[in-house]
Amino acid sequence: MAFSIHHVAIILGEELTRTDLVPVFDELIKDLDEVRIGLLQHLVDFLQVTHLTLPVVIIVIIVVILMFLVQSSQTFNKLFHFPIALLFWVLWANLLKIQTGLP
Fold it and tell me: What pTM value is reported for the model?
């Protein structure tokens, strides 16, 4: 489920994703490392379906990154390095969009 939650979100659409799938995402983010990696890899795709505003997307990405760092601080798995690096890249790109006013 975690590796394909963004596909389910596309099928359900924006409204049902926000009401029904976001709580599932919230529970999965607390699951095993393997499940959390699947969520990380497709976080941006999942957020795009919700059509959140750019500042909200940035806040969500920051919160998810911090959750992973805090929850995994003792046993930070190398499997998280690449997905988190990608999230930082997406975060940086979106911050540049806000700063330059690009769509």
Answer: 0.66
